[in-house]
Structures are given as structure tokens and as C-alpha cells.
Amino acid sequence: MTWKRLASLVAGASMALSTAVAVAPAAHAQTDPVNDPTEVTYVCRGNNPGNAPGSPITVTTTAPASVAPGEVFTVVLDPGEMRNNSRNHARFTYDIALPDNATLVDSRLVGRATNMGGTPSLVRVNSQTKVNQADGDALRIWGGASARWGTSSGTGNSGGLTVSSNQNFRFPTVEMTFRAPLDATAGDEIVVGLAGTGPNSSAAGAQLMYSGNTGGFFGSNFQNECAASANAAQLASVTVSEDAVVQLDSTTRIVGGDQAADSSIPVPLRAQVSAQYASAGEISQGTVTFRNADTDEVLGVANPDAGGYAEIAHEFPRVADDAPEVQVNIVAEYSGVEGNIEPSEDSIVLTLTPKPVVQWNTDFNLRATIGQLDEDSLPVTVTATFQRPGLEYPEGTLVQLYRNGVAVGDPVPVPESDTTLTWEDDVPRAERTATHRYTVELETIRVEYDQWTGSTPNPAAVIVTGTGGEDAPAPGTGSLDVGSLSGSAEGSLTDSVGYDVAPLSGVMPELTSMLSSAS
């Protein structure tokens, strides 16, 4: 007997046959982004002040004028052109102050540095000590090394981000995605500016830092700390509107899809909940209820864990050895979080067998490589590598590619002997920059009492620049609903589930090349 996915045969017209995503409430009338250039001056202190950065510097921010409570929005900050005069400098850092009444849920570099050596990336720091800190109140552009203040500190004219003498140079543009507080009051201001403005008398007073060497036979190392003018403390101000709270969409997926299980032992059931821009703690405030959709019996209830997984084990009535198999329609219902996250659900067909079922699982390791960005879309090649199980796949075994939890094209057959699968996708560009995650899943298949399953341990992520602009994509407002992420791309998302946005300190090669081509 051969058994495959039976989604088309699920009994009961009222039962959802695929992941259901709640429709988000209508967003408030969006305001046009405000593009605001500000002239910023610097006062530097240290052994050799005055060589950089030049003055004044035109810093440009782009942000929506207003957002609703709970709404996701983007602020783009272009540090502007600076000048390095008489000596080579190194270990440049540039600090941006994060608002204390909004949550940073993503950050990325969207433009290239100009006339700077080293590889720019983003890291969060403590604005007072300048030391790297996962929940720090400032966002730093750096090259992996700091001058006198910060992690990996040092002096001299090498290390980190470097600039040769007599050069105009630019730090890359930074795009930051925030979520407005749920409990915000109409009229509240969410402010983004530079970290280190006004009098420069301490580490906290430095916004821009770098080091160098005085040169010559008796040359010595030096370090400079520069404070930005007071007006740089408020480069963008976003007003909270009177509109209703914008809740985040969620998706729920029962791991393994339609499957079979031995009825003589408790059957494990596992579902993963994702909600982009929600932390693991927020998602876990909701519950997942596993239900027998045929009888409405509650099989178990669990809170999602740090990975968004909720799992139960339920003991079904045993199927007698000489009795036919029993099919049960199972639904997993995520409750959502009132005033914050919308509910969602998924369903499968569970086949209960009278004998043990041997599981043959496959892990698909993904790599997403981007092509040339054009006006309408970004081509992406997704490659999955895997090891074949001890018992070969039966004929007809299929693998499905998903983007943001939605199937891309038709499932493809497992190759007869190869261990690689490749898909070509074309991702449409939206008005604002968006992150997309790819996963694959083997469509569970069973022959007698052997069952083959498979999924993706770590999704692959790509970021597609919005159509609002290339060097500095125009931000939009509203919430996106995409899948989950783990692995190398989650470094910039502390305590987050449902994201696979590029970090930006430790970005994977595909994302690096994509960001370059998209800027």
C-alpha cells in the first residue's frame, strides 16, 4: 500500500486545508515619507583633532511623518560625505541613537561605502561605554574594530574601516525598521538621531571615532573622538497617530504535514508559529490548541517555545492489529495575542496505524543566490543539498519549495541519485524593502510501515530592495508577514522568531552581494 499527502481528500468542508493567515486590520492612511537633510558640525578631541571629518556634513534621513501604534515603519539615514585631510586614518565608527519608545526589529546597510577600506557592518552598542551589546541603545557602523572606546579597541592607522589621506569618503546608508509601541499615545514622538551630540567630554560624547599615526620616524599613534552638533540628536521625528493598533499577522504550520503514526503509543504533534517583528516572548504569550476536527476534541494545548514550536503528545484509541487504518483530521489553532498578534491555524490528515511506523527523515540545507535586480523583480536561485536516507525514497517522492510559507510552483521529484535540488524564483519588488525566506519540505510519503519526511533546519534569506529608491529606499508603513529564520542571519534579531533578516554584522555572502547590487 502506498500512502501520500491527502490534502485534497480531507473530510469536512469547514476544515481549513492550508495555513490560514488572519487578514490584518486596515492600516491608517499612510503619510508621505519626509526626506530631511540636516547640516551637522563636529567638534573633535584627542591627540590629533581636525584631520577628519570636515564640516559641515549633510546628513539625510527619510521617515514617515506618522504611524499607528504597533505599526512597523522604516527610517533611512544617509551619513553624508566627509573629508579626511592630512593623514591615513583607521578604526572608524559611526553611532546612531535608537529611540527608547520603539523597538528596532531590523537594520541593514543599503548602500556602499565610498573610499573606505574594510568591510562595513552594523552592531548594537551601549551608547555610554561604546562596547558591543545585543540590546544596546545605539547602532554602530564599524569594520570589526573600534578606536579608543568600544569592542576590539586600539589605535594606529590600520584595522577596521580605513580612509587614506586627502580623500572625500562616505559611510554606507543605514535602513532601520522599527515597530511603534502598542501602548503609544497619540502625539508621541519617536525620534532617531546620532548618539553623541553636544559637549564632548566623555566616551558618551563621541559620535564619530577613529585613530591614526602622526607619521615620521618618531611617529606615534593617536585617537580622535568627535561629537556632533546638538541638532543631530533629532534627525527624524515620527508622530504616533490616533489610529487603532496595527496587529502583526502570524502563520502556523504543522511540522511534517500529512503523516502516519503508530496508534499504540502517544503520537507527538508539533506546530511552528511565526510572526515577523514579534519576539519569541511575545509569540509565546499565545497558545496552540491541537484539535480533532472530526469530533472537536481538544488533544492538547501548548505555548510556543523560543523557536516558535508548540508540541504535545496525544494517545489516540489503539487501532486493532486486524483493523483498517484510521484517518483523523487534525487542526492546530494559534490563539494570537490580543492587541498584538493575529491568530492563525493549519490542518493535516493523521493516519493511525496498527503497527509501528519507521521514520526516514531528510534535512535540506538551503542556499539562496540572487541575480541582477531590475525595476520589477529580483531573480533568485535556491539550491538544496541533502543526504539520502538509509532506505531509498520510494517512487513519486516530491519536494516543495516555499517562500514566506507559501508554495512556489509545483513540487518537484527527488532526483534518482543526485543530492542537490535547484529552483529558480522571481521575487516581485514592493514599494518598501522586504525580506523573504525560503524553506523546502518533502511531501511526506509512506510505503507500508516506512515513512519518509523532510524539512529545512535553517531557512535561506534574501532582501529585496523596495521601489522607492535605490541608494536610500523610500520607507513605507505597515506590517509584513513572512516566515521564520534561524542560523547565520538571525544575529541582528535578539529574542526574535519569525525573522530571517540579514544581520548586518556577519552577513552571509549571498546577502552581501545582493545588498551591493541593490544599492
Which spans of ≥5 residues are poorly predicted at pLDDT below 50?
Answer: 1-30, 469-519
Query: How much β-strand is present in the residues?
Result: 35-45%
Measure the end-to-end span.
Answer: 55 Å
Question: How many distinct beta strands?
Answer: 36
Keywords:
2 helices; mainly beta; 519 residues
Give a verbal description of the structure.
By secondary structure, this protein is mainly beta. Helices cover 3% and strands 42% of the residues. The chain contains two helices and 36 strands. It has helices spanning 280-283, 509-517; strands at residues 2-3, 20-21, 33-40, 42-46, 57-64, 66-67, 72-78, 81-84, 89-97, 103-109, 121-125, 138-142, 167-170, 174-179, 189-194, 208-213, 221-228, 236-240, 251-254, 259-262, 267-274, 288-292, 297-302, 309-314, 326-334, 344-353, 358-363, 365-370, 377-385, 398-403, 406-407, 412-413, 420-428, 434-447, 450-455, 460-464. Strands 4, 6, 9, 11, 12, 15, 16, 17 and 18 form a nine-stranded mixed beta sheet that branches. Strands 1, 27, 30, 31, 32, 34, 35 and 36 form an eight-stranded mixed beta sheet that branches. Strands 2, 20, 22, 23, 25 and 26 form a six-stranded mixed beta sheet that branches. A hairpin with a 2-residue loop joins strand 30 and strand 31. The longest helix is centred in the C-terminal third of the chain and has 9 residues, at 509-517. The radius of gyration is 26 Å and the shape is elongated.
Protein topology:
Blueprint: E1 2-3, E2 20-21, E3 33-40, E4 42-46, E5 57-64, E6 66-67, E7 72-78, E8 81-84, E9 89-97, E10 103-109, E11 121-125, E12 138-142, E13 167-170, E14 174-179, E15 189-194, E16 208-213, E17 221-228, E18 236-240, E19 251-254, E20 259-262, E21 267-274, H1 280-283, E22 288-292, E23 297-302, E24 309-314, E25 326-334, E26 344-353, E27 358-363, E28 365-370, E29 377-385, E30 398-403, E31 406-407, E32 412-413, E33 420-428, E34 434-447, E35 450-455, E36 460-464, H2 509-517
